[in-house]
Design goal:
By secondary structure, the protein is α/β, with parallel strands linked by helices. It has one domain: Hypothetical Protein Ychn, Chain: A (3-Layer(aba) Sandwich). Helices cover about 40% and strands about 15% of the residues. It has six helices and four strands. Strands 3-2-1-4 form a four-stranded parallel beta sheet. It is globular, with a radius of gyration of 14 Å.
Length: about 130
Amino acid sequence: MSSKRISIIVVSGSRERLQMAAMIAAVGAVSGNRVTVFLSMNALRYFVKDGETAAPAEGPFGQLLEEKQVTPFRTLFEQAVSLGDAKLHPCSMAMDVLALEPAALEPWLAEPLGLTRFLADAADAQTWSF
């Protein structure tokens, strides 16, 4: 199978959307694809060291994810990085708005990117937005 590029923009803070983005990142990365995830706005807070890790459910399916103890989105994202070719980049603008320094974020995240750079890198990739 030939390698493809997958770009994922994650701005939502809902459990269902974060979960789906993480599933695509993990499966894409372990399948040999290069995956780039851009974390911004409401999603970024779940990647702060010692911060919130459980996102609120948007609907009943999000509640079922927790009840059935489905692997959490943060674990899936971390597995995408450690087991495949995935990089999770925090949005530099969101970091500025939230007054976050790179050291405040999880160590498995890649360097911050601006939207312009992300879009240039994603130009020929399959792109998903959550």
